[in-house]
Amino acid sequence: xxxxxxxxxxxxxxxxxxxxxxxxxxxxxxxxxxxxxxxxxxxxxxxxxxxxxxxxxxxxxxxxxxxxxxxxxxxxxxxxxxxxxxxxxxxxxxxxxxxxxxxxxxxxxxxxxxxxxxxxxxxxxxxxxxxxxxxxxxxxxxxxxxxxxxxxxxxxxxxxxxxxxxxxxxxxxxxxxxxxxxxxxxxxxxxxxxxxxxxxxxxxxxxxxxxxxxxxxxxxxxxxxxxxxxxxxxxxxxxxxxxxxxxxxxxxxxxxxxxxxxxxxxxxxxxxxxxxxxxxxxxxxxxxxxxxxxxxxxxxxxxxxxxxxxxxxxxxxxxxxxxxxxxxxxxxxxxxxxxxxxxxxxxxxxxxxxxxxxxxxxxxxxxxxxxxxxxxxxxxxxxxxxxxxxxxxxxxxxxxxxxxxxxxxxxxxxxxxxxxx
Length: 421
Fold this sequence. Notes:
Layout: E1 12-17, E2 38-39, E3 43-44, H1 46-56, E4 60-65, H2 70-79, E5 90-95, H3 109-114, H4 117-123, E6 127-132, E7 136-137, H5 141-151, E8 155-163, E9 171-175, E10 181-186, E11 200-211, H6 212-223, H7 232-243, E12 246-250, E13 266-267, H8 272-281, E14 309-311, E15 313-314, E16 317-318, E17 320-322, E18 325-326, E19 331-333, E20 336-338, E21 341-342, E22 347-348, E23 353-359, E24 364-365, E25 370-376, E26 381-382, E27 387-388, H9 392-398, E28 400-401, E29 407-409, H10 411-420
Parallel strand pairs: 1-4, 1-6, 4-5, 8-12, 14-19, 17-20, 18-21, 19-22, 20-23, 21-23, 22-24, 23-25, 24-26, 25-27, 25-29
Antiparallel strand pairs: 2-3, 6-11, 7-13, 8-11, 9-10, 9-11, 15-16, 28-29
Pathway: Glycan biosynthesis; glycogen biosynthesis
Protein name: Glucose-1-phosphate adenylyltransferase
InterPro entries: ADP-Glc_PPase, ADP_Glu_pyroP_CS, GlgC_bac, GlmU/GlgC-like_hexapep, NTP_transferase_dom, Nucleotide-diphossugar_trans, Trimer_LpxA-like_sf
């Protein structure tokens, strides 16, 4: 196919799958879908996929939503409304809306695209980039698009290189010496390894590039197959591997790094432990994920709030933060904050201590509270004198304590505790 523009991204639509709950995040997804969960002090998880698309030159995007989508839809409307149709730019929000019939919601990842074929058609694009909306990474999709076209592939699958011991949690690719995919298996007990490397596997990132006309025909046939689960990983990709040309694209080739020797950063923050760790890692002296990079910014909705403020300077009542990230609108009043990440408009009161705490927006921490190794949900009011992180058995009576020893605190948990006290 002759290229109509120099950048393939200008002829590409990004279709972001953002309908999943993310149940392993427990109560953090009781009121919001996983892509709408807060991350990094001021962003949401979905901002990473959308920002990668924008920074790669893609100006046509759609976000398919389903589970408890209000928070996600509101965030996209507030933070991503700068696309202008007169410049041929679009960001469409596509809630599951019974567009096929009055009983059918999105049945699977592929069906979410199938039900919106007419909308994708209206974009008049050559390529469709399927993205998961729930991972933390920085990637130049233009590089993957160019590889897809150069290989004349039916599908190109974004892949991570992972240790064999961890590969059973992913969809795993078996490839030949040219990175053509010869087998694709979901969460195998005995995962296939890379040629010449028995300890390493290629795992799917849930990122796929298709020629739109090829994918369109494939989706229509899949929709007519009663035995299909209408899922890219379970149905469409294995079918292309068997009958067409599927190529693997290695994330290391398109990962956006600060330095060539930096590690390729990708995180699935799908558990409370992983979510806590990825946020706390940002407080390191030189974090692996650089949110300060002005050449590849992570765009988001930014509330209009005043700068953070630290008050009181007495021996046992000093507002301070060490090795921490403190967002706008926070008031640290006589509180010691260590190795913690505080989101927008967190207010803490005197004689309290936050240690390795991830505190979501609009939390109020009462006096004399001591909180260690915690995740605190949005809007929680921590009562005076609450101690968490020192007695695991006591913590587990009232809160969610993970296998890794992290305590998740939500307002309903505190309300139940107060009702018993």
